[in-house]
Amino acid sequence: MAQGKRMKTASSAVDKDKAYKLAEAVALVKSNAKAKFDETIEIIMNLGIDVKQSDQQVRVMVSLPEGTGKTNTVLVFAKGPKLDEAKAAGADFVGGDEIVDQINGGQIDINKIDRCVATPDMMGVVGKLGKILGPKGLMPNPKLGTVTMDVAKAIKDAKGGSVEARAEKAGIVQAGVGKASFTEAALEKNVKAFVDAIMRAKPTGAKGNYVKKITLTSTMGPGVKLDPADIAA
Q1: Contact (Cβ atoms closer than 8 angstroms) between residue 48 and residue 168
Q2: 5-20 tens-digit pLDDT
Q3: How far is CA 231 from CA 28, 40, 117, 182, 193, in A?
C-alpha cells in the first residue's frame, strides 16, 4: 500500500504530456527515487527501426563517463602474458580451456557473470561455449570491444564504466545510466553519452524519425519524457 501511495505522489509531480529538458528531467527523477535502496536510473529509447531487418540492428557498447554505479563480475578468456594482464586488471575469472570445463562442470556459475572478454586467439575456445554464452548475451564480440588484445581496458570498462545497448522488440533500447545517489551533473553526462552513442549507431536501413521517444525513470519511480532536441544540443 505504501508503495502505491508513493508512486501516486511521484506520478502526480510528472506532466505526462510534457517533454522535459534534460536537467529538469534528471532533477525530477532523482526527487522521485525515494525507495530504501539506491535505485537505478534507467533510460528507455524508442527507435524508429524494424529489428527484424538485418540492416536495422542497433547494438553498441556505451562508455559512460561517470560509470554505472555497479561493479560487474568479469570473466576473461586469455593465455600467456594476457592471462597475467587480466588478473592484474581485476578480472574475477581468467583462463582458457579450463574455464570451459569449470563452466560445464558447474564450478563457475555463468548466471553470476555480467561480462565476458576474450583475446582474439581464444575465440576457438570461446566457441565451445557458444550455446551457453550466446543465449545469455555473454558471447565476446569485437564490435562491442570485448574481443581485444587490450584486456586491461576491456576489463575496466566491463567492471563498471560501460553498458551494452541493444535494440529489442519494437525498437526499444533500455539501460541503466547510473544510480539515484549520483549527482545531477553525473547523470546528465551519462545520459548525453548514451544518447550520443545511439545516434551514432543509427543503422543504414533506418528511415524517417529515428528517435521517437526518450524516457528517464528510476527503479521504483514513474517515467519522465525527455526532449531529444535538448539532449542533442
Answers
A1: no
A2: 666 666 777 888 899 9
A3: 16, 20, 32, 19, 10
- Domain end residue (candidates: 130, 160, 190): 160
Q: What is the Cα–Cα distance from 188 to 67, expressed in whole angstroms? A: 12
- Rounded to 5°, the CA angle 171-175-176 comes to 160
The C-alpha atoms of residue 142 and residue 118 are separated, in whole angstroms, by 9
Give the separation between CA 189 and CA 181, rounded to whole angstroms.
15
Q: Are 86 and 155 in contact (CB under 8 A)?
A: yes
Q: What confidence category does residue 70 fall into, taking pLDDT thresholds of 50, 70 and 90? A: confident
- Asked whether residue 107 is domain-assigned, the answer is yes
At 210-227, the pLDDT tens digits run 999 999 999 999 999 999
Q: What are the residues facing 76 on neighbouring strands?
A: 94, 117
- Rounded distance between C-alpha atoms, residue 117 and residue 75, angstroms: 6
- Whether residue 3 lies inside any domain: the answer is no
Q: Do 78 and 132 fall within a single domain?
A: yes
For 182-218, what is each residue's pLDDT tens digit? 999 999 999 999 999 999 999 998 888 999 999 999 9
Q: Is 213 part of a structural domain of the chain? A: yes
CATH (domain of 195): 3.30.190.20
Residue 199: domain span? 17-58+167-232
Residues 168 and 39: beta-carbon distance below 8 Å: no
- The radius of gyration of the chain from alpha carbons, rounded to an integer in Å, stands at 19
What is residue 230's predicted lDDT score, i.e. its pLDDT? 85
Domain count, the chain: 2
Instruction: Evaluate whether residue 2 is within a structural domain.
Output: no
